[in-house]
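Local shape tokens

___
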Amino acid sequence: MRLTILGGGGFRVPLVYGALLTDHAEGRVTEVVLHDLDDRRLHAVTRVLAEQAAGVPDAPAVTATTDLDAALRGADFVFSAIRVGGLEGRANDERVALAEGVLGQETVGAGGIAYGLRTVPVAVDIARRVARLAPDAWVINFTNPAGLVTEAMSRHLGDRVIGICDSPVGLGRRIARVLGTRPEQAFVDYVGLNHLGWVRGLRVAGRDELPRLLGDPALLGSFEEGRLFGADWLRSLGAIPNEYLHYYYFNRETVRAYQEAGKTRGAFLRDQQARFYEEAADPAVSALRAWDRTRAEREATYMAENRESAGAGEREAEDLSGGYEKVALALMRAIARDERATLILNVRNRSTLDADAVVEVPCLVDASGAHPFAADPLPGHATGLVCAVKAVEREVLAAAASGSRARAVTAFALHPLVDSVTVARRLVERYTEVHPGLAYLA
């Protein structure tokens, strides 16, 4: 079975390959094709993967190419993890937004809109190529903003594109751990959009254990989201939000913390990864050890400003090991081998919102794809926020399809974290100045 990874020179590719190395069953991935536009990054990641595969007799063969069409032909699965504009683009997204006093995070608020406007045209081109060159392939999308990009690609691939994210998995795992149950024994009732969702129930043997957690201040204060949001606020919601909701519920505090930080997250990762790729180019250096060291630092500093502003402390050791690669592998196994699995995925739900809206919900996955479970209506406190952000996503899609600058301004202006049409206009002006990829907006 052939897996093509788009963004194959990306820093997190070794996580996916490492997960593949643990799979020895029939019907496993036997060939991995890395595609990237940057030869240097491809070379560095290929070195890491070679070291990972050392001593593994049935390790998937790895090839690398800068030719997109060649990478797609013959693929059974396509894993999309591209970053249009690179980390320099992310750093610019953050810098421009913070200068206007609004959030510049890569998937939330102004930064997420800018990233989406750059990424959607490229993702749509990829979807069209997949439909033409590998019509039977399944596309697993991790490219951010994951829900928005998955919806854009679904207009050309239908249900053969599925978005994944590790945030809901990590949240469900932490809640189960606190409640003293094994994550695989719990059904997590999660609903929302990517990076905008809530756990509203956690059922073990048919019993909802979430009320027990919400009713115990000590338990609530013992895991990351409890410390991040505070026990009182979680009890008020009657649900546990995805960590990204901190940007909404504590927006002023977060913007201030990001403005006061010495370096934005994007700038930190840009500089950190530049050091890694330079180090990995040296044949005398172990690329795998350099990658391991860099990854540990990356994971430990994730959402550091949010945790600091909330007094949430350091991340738990159990949460430093990643997770999206495990979701990707479980998804591929379920489809390729008809091994039924329940996963929280980004899919067209056809019930929570309109028929074409991609939402993030639990799904049963089998050989025919991902099938969303029937979901109760959104909680009252979530309805307005989800509908508002979905409206923003639709404006981004319309702007990307038409090249309309006015639709781009509308997308920024409608976002709950951008509180001014005037600011929205300035953001579009500044982003089109710093991002060549937005030159299409007229």
Summary: The radius of gyration is 21 Å. The first strand starts at residue 2 and ends at 6. The mean pLDDT is 93.
